[in-house]
Specification:
Number of helices: 5
Number of strands: 15
Helix content: 10-25%
Structural class: alpha/beta
Order of helices and strands: HEEEEEEHEHEHEEEEEEEH
Distance between the termini: 50 Å
Shape: elongated
Largest sheet: 5 strands, parallel
Bound molecules: NADP nicotinamide-adenine-dinucleotide phosphate
Radius of gyration: 22 Å
Strand content: 25-35%
Length: 276
């Protein structure tokens, strides 16, 4: 995929230090340029296998490339969760979306439903409200878990309504979505006319490439200590894919800085001549 991963799915970032407001794709490109400026080399492809062979890690990609390294940093992030309801798969790309910045413009002047109550759902509902006619946020509880300041913006945006204690249980339409079925916690079922639905109900870690190495927990998060080591010599994990208590761009960047310095010191130490 494009450099920056999930950052690219974020319309407006307003809590990354140094920027009042910056779009996700702009920040991702800027970070890519920084890495280039410091001489990082980029390889392409999906990693299909990571194995330790002697002192080295051996990495194979679906492009047929094979890399060998003393250390590997896994920073594969997360991917969006799906609702798993009837119609979701059928209408994906035809009204069902997981990325407001990618697809929001298709719904200019229309009514969309956003599902979820975390930072992503609330931030993207606010973003969509600037483009579409009306947003209905559907949340399965009676309170949101998003940051307080963002919630305040949501509640003060006149074209956003919130439907509490309800779940989307079916997505219907003809060629594209035109109806969303809601079931509230009391079991009452109702249909809501909508031209699109944006799903932001959380993330799953992209840790499958190391799942055979016994370094992930039951949720698929890579387990690390404070030095971001996995317990296997030379294998580190950073960012949202690991068992971090906070998933923000700033915390991922911090992980990257910490682990890079640790590795450089370790490699320098190993390379230093032994004095007698
Ligand atoms: P999240 O924080 O896990 O929130 C998921 C939301 O969806 C919660 O409201 C959850 O309800 C609800 N939910 C879960 N499963 C559901 C289902 N099957 N049906 C309906 N609703 C469901 O996910 P996220 O908002 O994508 O955020 C992921 C991480 O990135 C978080 O750590 C977040 O803080 C971070 N993030 C930070 C920023 C920022 O700093 N600006 C922006 C975006 C994301 P419950 O509350 O009941 O679990």
């Amino acid at each position: 995929g494009i450099y920056g991963g999930q950052i690219n799915n974020t319309s407006e970032i307003d809590n990354y230090p140094g920027f009042q407001k910056i779009s996700g794709p702009e920040l991702a490109e800027s970070m890519y340029n920084t890495a280039n400026r410091f001489g990082a080399e980029f390889g392409y492809g999906n990693v299909e296998a990571i194995e330790k062979t002697g002192a080295l890690w051996d990495i194979q990609t679906d492009m047929g490339d094979n890399y060998q390294a003393k250390t590997v940093i896994v920073g594969t992030g997360t991917r969006y969760k799906k609702l798993g309801v009837l119609g979701e798969e059928h209408f994906e790309g035809r009204g069902v979306s997981y990325c407001a910045i990618c697809d929001g413009e298709f719904f200019t002047g229309k009514h969309v439903v956003v599902v979820g109550g975390g930072d992503s759902a609330v931030e993207e509902a606010i973003y969509l409200a600037k483009i579409v006619d009306r947003v209905t946020l559907v949340h399965w509880r009676d309170e949101l878990s998003a940051q307080k300041g963002t919630q305040d913006v949501l509640f003060n945006t006149p074209n956003i309504d919130v439907v509490w204690n309800s779940q989307v249980t079916e997505i219907k339409g003809d060629m594209t979505v035109n109806l969303v079925t809601l079931t509230n916690n009391g079991g009452t079922v109702s249909d809501l006319s909508a031209d699109g639905i944006f799903v932001y109900i959380g993330m799953n870690p992209n840790s499958e490439i190391v799942s055979h190495l016994d370094v992930v927990d039951e949720r698929g998060q890579i387990l690390t200590n404070a030095a971001l080591e996995t317990g296997l010599e030379g294998l580190y994990a950073i960012g949202d894919v690991r068992n971090t208590p906070m998933r923000q761009i700033s915390t991922s960047v911090g992980d990257g800085a910490l682990v890079s310095q640790t590795i450089i010191e370790k490699l320098n130490k190993a390379a230093a001549p032994v004095s007698i």
